[in-house]
Specification:
Rossmann fold, 6-stranded parallel β-sheet, 39% helix, single chain
C-alpha cells in the first residue's frame, strides 16, 4: 500500500496518531474481506490514485496532506459500523468513502456517520434502501441505485427476447433490493417470473434451491449475488446439473474469481450488468491515469470510487475543512454550474476555489449532480465473457 493510504483493521486501528492527525484524514471503508473481497485490489488502486494526485498537486487546504485511512468492513453490517467508528473516533476522519456492500453501508451510516454529522460518499452500495435514509443530507452516492439497474436490466432482457426467467438472489440488502426492482419492472413490461427465491450466503450447496427454481420451466436464471462467494457456488452447481441453459448476473457477479472458479468455457451463455462511465474526456483521463498506475480501467466500481475520493477532497477544500459545511460544499462542487473540473485537475480546482470561483466536477463515472436524496442517475452496460475477461456487449437503458 502506498504511503498516501494508511491501513487500519475494522477492530483494531494501527494508525499512528500524530502524523495522521496532523493532516486532513478521510476514512476509506471497503470489503477487503468478505463477499466483495475480489473488488478490493482495483478499488484500492483507484482510491490511491485520487489521493496521490491531490497530494502531488499541492495537497489540501494550506498545503496539508490528504491521508486516507483504510478500514475493512468485511461486507458485514456489524463490521461496517465498527470500521466507521474507528476511522472517525480514533483516526479523526472528517469524511468517509464506502463501504461497498449495501448492508455494511446502511449500518455504518445509521449507527455512526449520520449521528456524527459526517459526510459519507458511497461508490458501490446500490440498495434502493439507501435513497430513503433519514440522513440529514450527509449520505451521497456516485453509483446509481439498484432501482435503476433493475429497471434497465429488465428492459434489456425483454428487448433481447428473454420472456421468462427464474430469479435467485442473496438474502441481504443488496440482493433483495435489486431483485425486487428487477421483478417489478420485468413483470410490468410483460415478462414472466417463473420462479423467485432468496438464498442464504455461504451454504455448502444450493442444489435443492436450484431444483425448485428450475421447476418453473424457465431456461434463464437471473442471479443477484457476489461472484466471489455464494454466487460462484450457485453458478457452478447450476451448470453442473444442467438446471438452466442461460445465465444473467447483476454487477456483483462481474468477478474474475467467478471466471476462474467456473471456467470460462462454461460461461458462453452468461451475461452480466455493470456500471460504466459515460463517455467523456474525464473518463478518458481516468482510464489513462489509472492504467499508468497499474490499474484495470474496466474493473467494476473503480471510476465511481475514484470520483468519491476526489469529490470528498473538493468538498473539504470548498468548506475550508469545516465538517459542518461539507454537505453544502459537496453539492456546490457538482451542481452543473461553474467552471468545469475534470479528473486529475486538482491544482486548477484549488486555485479556483481560493479565488471564490464556482466549479463543477465532471467525473470519470459521469456528471455527478446529486438529486435531493444524494443519488445520481448512473450508466450501465451489459457484458459477456470473452477469453479470461469481460467484454462489453451493449449499453443498457
Amino acid at each position: 500500500m502506498k504511503t498516501s493510504l494508511v491501513l487500519a483493521t475494522a477492530l483494531v486501528s494501527v494508525v499512528a496518531a500524530s502524523p495522521v492527525l496532523a493532516d486532513k484524514t478521510i476514512g476509506l471503508l471497503g470489503g477487503i474481506t468478505g463477499g466483495a473481497a475480489a473488488l478490493a485490489p482495483e478499488i484500492m488502486k483507484s482510491y490511491d490514485l485520487a489521493v496521490k494526485q491531490i497530494n502531488d498537486q499541492g495537497g489540501i487546504l494550506a498545503g496539508e496532506k490528504l491521508v486516507g485511512v483504510i478500514a475493512d468492513d468485511g461486507c458485514s453490517p456489524q463490521l461496517g459500523a465498527d470500521a466507521a467508528t474507528k476511522v472517525i473516533n480514533v483516526s479523526g476522519a472528517i469524511g468517509v468513502v464506502g463501504p461497498w456492500c449495501s448492508g455494511a453501508m446502511l449500518s455504518a451510516a445509521n449507527s455512526v456517520t449520520i449521528p456524527a454529522g459526517i459526510v459519507l460518499i458511497n461508490p458501490a452500495g446500490t440498495s434502493p434502501a439507501i435513497t430513503s435514509l433519514d440522513d440529514k443530507d450527509t449520505v451521497f452516492r456516485t453509483v446509481a441505485s439498484d432501482e435503476y439497474q433493475g429497471q434497465v436490466l429488465a428492459h434489456t432482457l425483454l428487448e433481447r427476447g428473454t420472456a421468462s426467467v427464474a430469479v435467485s438472489f442473496i438474502n441481504n440488502d443488496y440482493g433483495k433490493g435489486l431483485a425486487d426492482a428487477f421483478r417489478k419492472e420485468y413483470e410490468a413490461k410483460g415478462g414472466k417470473i417463473a420462479a423467485f427465491a432468496a438464498h442464504d450466503e455461504n451454504k455448502p450447496s444450493y442444489r435443492s434451491d436450484l431444483a425448485e427454481l428450475a421447476k418453473g420451466g424457465a431456461d434463464t436464471l437471473v442471479l443477484f449475488d457476489y461472484g466471489d462467494t455464494s454466487g460462484l457456488t450457485v453458478m457452478r452447481e447450476a451448470i453442473e446439473n444442467d438446471f438452466f441453459a442461460n445465465f444473467v448476473g447483476g454487477d456483483g457477479m462481474k468477478s474474475t474469481t467467478l471466471l476462474e472458479g467456473v471456467g470460462v468455457d462454461n460461461l458462453s451463455t452468461f451475461l452480466v450488468s455493470s456500471p460504466v462511465g459515460t463517455e467523456s474526456e474525464s473518463l478518458n483521463l481516468f482510464n489513462k491515469a489509472f492504467k499508468a498506475a497499474g490499474g484495470d480501467p474496466n474493473a467494476v466500481f473503480t471510476n465511481t470510487s475514484y470520483d468519491a475520493v476526489f469529490m470528498l477532497a473538493l468538498a473539504i477544500e470548498q468548506a475550508g475543512g469545516d465538517p459542518a459545511k461539507m454537505s453544502v460544499s459537496l453539492r456546490a462542487i457538482s451542481d452543473g454550474k461553474g467552471e468545469k473540473i475534470q479528473v486529475g485537475e486538482w491544482a486548477k480546482a484549488k486555485e479556483l476555489i481560493a479565488a471564490g470561483t464556482d466549479i463543477d466536477y465532471s467525473g470519470a463515472s459521469g456528471e455527478l449532480d446529486f438529486d435531493a436524496a444524494g443519488d445520481v442517475p448512473g450508466s450501465y452496460a451489459l457484458f459477456k465473457v470473452v477469453g479470461n475477461d469481460f467484454e462489453r456487449v451493449s449499453q443498457m437503458k
